[in-house]
Amino acid sequence: MSATVYALYRYTFPDGHAKEWALGERADCHLEVRWGHAGRLVQCEVYPVARRADLARRVAAKIRKGYVAAGRVHIDGSGRPVAIVGTPPRPPATSPRAPVPRIDLSALDTGAADYWF
Asked: Are 13 and 5 within 8 A, CB to CB?
């Protein structure tokens, strides 16, 4: 298991499956990003510490897209996130998201034939 502590973010699709993205600082002061299907963060990229601001912007972009913070974890050799002792447990990867209501555009009908175009 890696000694690196990662901040884990999860995006859950409406059908219940999820993907995860994690950011951690390694012992050699490089930043490591891991991503993949929920529970299998096998893809990895390492960045120099000078890219910290870029990665902070990427975290903000992930949150805007719908990712939620899922806690702090270690990641074992096979890419599985392992909760750190003393942290609250992660929600299950298959937790469904609330459905998004459909917008009824018929209420915007003005009666004019070419109103929108």
From this structure: no
32-66: pLDDT as tens digits: 999 999 989 999 999 999 999 999 999 999 999 99
Query: CA 80 to CA 103: how far, in whole Å?
Result: 39
Whose tokens are 């209501």? That residue is: 101
Q: Are 62 and 21 in contact (CB under 8 A)?
A: yes
**Whole-prediction pTM:** 0.69
